[in-house]
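Researcher: If convenient, please comment on what follows.
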Amino acid sequence: MERLTGRNEAGDLLLCGRTVYGNDEDVYNAVSLLDEYEDTNFEPSDIATLRNFACQLYGRYKTAHEGSCEGCRWEKGE
């Protein structure tokens, strides 16, 4: 996956090579989260696999046929 974020020599957050300033806190926070995600080196498909694994370990997938997973926040990638 191609990185969109990075840091310059001063440690400032970059998005597509441009410095992201804290003037708009929501944008800065969103770009910071994207930067942290990119640091994991996970692909989106890796995240889906981990999510499914967690549901298998801790979810109610064994009783899904009885409706226990209706409204699950992970259903259909939500």
About this structure: The beta strands are 5-7, 13-15, 18-19.
